Amino acid sequence: MSSAPLVVGFDLDLTLLDARRGIVATYAEIAARTGVPIDGELAASRLGPPLEQELANWFPADEVAGAATLYRELYVDHAVPVSEAMPGAARAVEAVRREGGRVVVVTAKAEWLARASLAAIGIEPDVVVGWLWAAAKGDAIREHGVHIYVGDHEGDMRGARAGGALSVGLTTGSHDADALSAAGADVVLGGLADFPDWLAGAVLDRRLAALSTRLTELGSVLVAFSGGADSAFLLAWAARTLGPGAVVAATAVSPSLPAAELDAARAFVAALGVRHVLPSTDEQSRPGYLANGADRCYFCKAELTETLGPLAADLGLAHVVTGTNADDAVAGFRPGIRAAAERGAATPLLDAGLTKRQVRAASRRLGLVTADKPAAACLASRIAYGIEVTPSRLARVEHAEQALRLALADAELPCRDLRVRDLGDRARIEVDAELVPTLTARPDLTSAVTGFDLIEVDPRGFRSGSMNELL
Fold first, then answer.
1. C-alpha distances in angstroms, 292 versus 83, 296, 380, 438?
2. 201, pLDDT greater than 90
3. What number is the average pLDDT over the span 253-279?
4. Considering the entire predicted model, what is its pTM?
5. C-beta atoms surrounding 209 within 10 Å
6. pLDDT of 59 strictly over 50
7. What is the CA radius of gyration of the chain?
8. If you average pLDDT over residues 427-438, what whole number do you get?
9. Most buried of 74, 282, 381, 400 (most Cβ within 10 A)?
C-alpha cells in the first residue's frame, strides 16, 4: 500500500452480495421460457466468471448471447429484490470509511445490475465498475488507485495482482484457502466479519511504516512533549526508530502546565531512557496570550516553538517535532497548529496520517501507560475567551479540578474526563455524561470547587473544545 489516501476494492458476488437464491430463480425462469434444462443450483455454485461462460454450459454457442440478454432482463425482477448482503458486508464497508478510505466495486456482473444489487442491500460504494473478470480487473484497480482488493475467487486474486493491489481472499465462495493462496492471495480470511480488525491492523502497520520513514528523514528530533498520548507515542516511536541518542524530550514549564502532568512526564521519559529537558516558557509576556482571544493558542504555540527552536540547535538536533495528529488537522479551529508550522515545527504523526485512535492503538502495542490517557489540554483552555489569563486564574482552575477529582474518588465515583471551566464569576463543571445526574444532585461534591461565586454542572457533560462553542 502506498501513502496515498486508502482505496479498497471489492468483488461483488459472494464477497459483498449473496444473490444465489435469486440466481437460481432466474435460471429456472430461463429454463421455463426456452425449454433448455438448467441446473440452477450448480450454476450458482460456480459464481465468479462472466455470465456468458456459465451459459455456454447450457446453450449452443450461437444462442449464448441471446440467453445472456434474457438472463439480465429477468435478473432485475427475480434476483435483485431477494438479494442479501454477505455476512459482515456492511461492517466491512464501514471499516473502510472509518479509516478515511474510498470503496470501489469491480465485478464481472453488468454494471447496471451491480448498482441495482448494491442498492438493494444498502451498500453505496464510491465507484462501481462492471464487465471485468480476472486479470482484466487489474485495469480498473490501477485506474482507481486501489490499494487492497477483496474477493472470493481465484480470478479476483489474479485481478488484484494485475492491478498492483494487495489481494485479500475470502473463503466464502467455491475456493478454499489453499486455492486462493496459490492464485496469489496475500491474505486469506474466513469472511468479511474478520475484515475490519484485519484492515485496522494493516492500515496501522502502513502508517507506522510511514512514520518511521518520516522520522528517519528528519534524522534527529527535539520532541515537544506535553505528556499526552500523542506526544508520548511520538517520543517513544522516535526513540525506537532513531535511537535514544538522536531524540530529546522537551516539556515546557509554565503556570499553564498542571504539576501532576509534569510529574507524570518525568516518569515517562525516564522509563524510555531518553534525555529530558524542562525549558521555561513565558506565555504571560505575550499580549495576545493574556488577552485570551480566540487565537490564544497561536501565541502559546509561538512561545513554545520559538523557545524550542534555539534549544534544538544548541543540542545538535535537526528538528523540533510536535504531536499533532491527522484528526487535529481536520478538527476545525486550531490556531496553535498554524503557529508551529510557521516556525518550522515538523508533524510526523500528521505526515504519516495517524489518527488519535491509531495513536492509542499503536501505544497499546508498545505497552505505553499513556495509551488510554484522557485528553489533558493546558490549563489556559479552561478560561473563557475574553477573560485575561493570569497565574492566579490558572492556579484556581488547577486547584478546583484536583479537589473535585479527590472528592469524586472519595465518593467512589470514577471519572475519566473532568474540566472546571472558568467563566469569570462562575465555574462550569464538565464530567463524563453518565456522571452528570449524580453530580448535579450532590452539592456536597460540587462544593469541593472553591474560589468562584457560582458553581454549575454542564448538563451535556465533557466535550473537548467546548469553549469554542462560546465564540
1. 58, 5, 9, 33
2. yes
3. 93
4. 0.83
5. 13
6. yes
7. 29
8. 96
9. 400
Instruction: Determine contact, residues 253/281, Cβ cutoff 8 Å.
Output: yes
What residues pair up with 319 in beta bridges, in sequence order?
221
Q: Which residues contact 142 (CB under 8 A, 6 or more apart)?
A: 162, 163, 164
pLDDT over threshold 60, residue 9: yes
Average pLDDT, the chain: 95
By three-state DSSP, how is residue 105 classified?
strand
Burial (CB < 10 A; 0-12, 13-18, 19+), residue 289, is buried
- When divided into structural domains, the chain yields a total of 4
Of 237, 309, 123, nearest in space to 114 by CA? 123
Q: Report the pLDDT averaged over residues 126-155.
A: 98
At 288-327, the pLDDT tens digits run 999 989 899 999 999 999 999 999 999 999 999 999 999 9
Residue 154 domain flag: yes
Q: Which helix (H) or strand (E) holds 362?
A: helix 356-366
Contact (CB, 8 A) for 351 and 329: no
Separation CA 161–CA 165 (nearest Å): 6
Element (H, E) at 127: strand 127-129
Yes or no: say if 89 and 117 are a contact pair by the CB < 8 Å rule.
Answer: no
178 and 310 fall within a common domain: no
Cβ-based burial of 469 (10 A; exposed 0-12, middle 13-18, buried ≥19): exposed
pLDDT reported for residue 24: 98
Nearest 5°: phi and psi at 7?
A: -130, 125
**In 292-355, which ranges are continuous DSSP H helix?**
296-314, 335-342, 348-351
Q: Rounded distance, CA 146 to CA 6, Å? A: 8
Query: Is residue 166 situated within a structural domain?
Result: yes
Confirm whether 37 is domain-assigned: yes
Residue range 80-107: average pLDDT? 97
Locate 33 and state its grid cell: 421460457
Question: Domain span at residue 263?
Answer: 219-375
Asked whether the beta carbons of 391 and 282 are under 8 A apart, the reply is no
Contact 349, 250 (CB under 8 A): no
Residue 207 lies in a domain: no
